[in-house]
Amino acid sequence: SRAVEKSFINTEYVKLVLLMIYFVVGVYYLFLFARRRKEKENLIFGIFTIMLVLYQIMRNQLRNEFEFDFVLMKKCEYMMIVTVVPVFTHFIRHFFKFQWNLVEKIADGTLGLIFLYELVVTDIRQYNFINANIVQPIWIVYMVLIFYFLIVRMKEKNMDAVFIFSGFVVIFCALVVDTLSTRGIIIFPKIMGYAFFFFISSLAIILANRSVRLHEEVEELNSTLEKKVAMRTEELSLSLENVKKLKMSQDGDYFLTSLLIKPLGKNRAEKNQVLIDFIVKQKKTFEFKNKVSDLGGDLCRAESLVLRDRNMTVFFNADAMGKSMQGAGGALVMGSVFDSILERTRLSRTVQDEYPEKWLKNSFIELHKVFESFQGSMLVSIVMGLIDNRTGLMYFINAEHPVSIIYRDGKASFIDEDFIFRKLGTEIAQSYIYVKTFQMKDGDIVINGSDGRDDIILPDEKTGEKSLNYDHTLFLGTVEESNGDINSMVDILYKKGEITDDLSLMSIKFVSKE
Length: 514
Known about the structure:
By secondary structure, the protein is an alpha+beta fold. The protein is built from 12 helices and 16 strands. The strands form 4 sheets. Strands 1-5-6-7-8-11 form a 6-stranded mixed beta sheet, with helices on one face. The protein has a 5-stranded antiparallel beta sheet with strand order 2-16-12-9-10, with helices on one face. A 3-stranded antiparallel beta sheet has the order 14-13-15, covered by helices on one side. Helix 6 (159-182) runs antiparallel to helix 7, helix 7 (192-261) packs parallel to helix 8 (324-347) and helix 8 packs across helix 10 (356-372).
């Protein structure tokens, strides 16, 4: 009997030694997870290994050599049985990147309730009944899921799945044998401890191989990194060179377009009683062959003209729809058509005999008809007019352009704020077009400007947050602060905030000789 007892105790000690090795493996993978939190499979595998170690320790017969509470030991043993299989299933699922499906959620919830129930109950017979009739049947669901995960990955020729499947078959067979032995169906020694050794070893080797593969990939990347960087740098250089060529071509188009527009935006009005000055600052700037220029849809023009033997000054301030090339296209058409109207007037005595308001209305309609042919794809807001150089009487039409401002005696105010037609390019009824007049006095300054004078991003004095200005009367204060000087107006606008659109300003000053 002493020999049998000694052999039995030695066997149990060997099992304990193996369990300590398993425990170290589990702690090692918990440490790996602590260093690399993204790989949750290391965490789950570590927990699974430690749980199995604790389960096997509680089943080791050397426990009887210590004065442990028997009911507490059995409680812990059965609670481990409830959780170990679900934990292993989650390990397989995480390792092979599967989603947490509904079947697994239901099984987890059921076993979770059983775990809480066993935490409260102390009747070992109930533990045994629940384990035999509820827990172990639910294991079948987990086994099916595990086989499904492994088979799917094996079909994809994943070698890790093949190795795990082989180890799982061994552990599954041991589990079946131990379960049948526990139920008394067959008489056979417990083999789970030995099968577990094979299984843990295979899993550890798989995880180790995975780490080795990762390091090999990193080493391979490091060894070829310099070459790949050189290749990538060459590709980026070629791409950058292509981008430079495209930009050079684009800037060339911009530069050519700006050269075409510049003659159409000249101030050719004679300096007499009517003094006109304007500034145009387009939002789009570019550099072509060391020459800096800008491009946009704003355009100003001033010319001297004779109608019915009276010296007149004609002007317009226009803003074509769109930015850069699109706006520049509208400005180019606008300037070209207006230039044609002026030349026809100079060459035709019949046109020169027209009354100013008639000439202005006909010119406005002609511009409208030209832009109508673009079917709404090119619209222009404009204020255009004629001024009698001797009397200072101004004839003008506004087509959805910011309202003109009169600066008189240090005060700025709008001129006929409600008098506005629709933009050039929209359908109009000629019978509804009429010309408005305004009598300028000595020293008066009329200010015209595009949307850029109002489209400013202003900082809030209290919060510091920036927002777009929606107060069209704000520009009146700028005119008064600058005393009607458009150069000062531009400086003040840039100090107030960020201008978000093309900006053009025109000042018309009348100096009476009487």
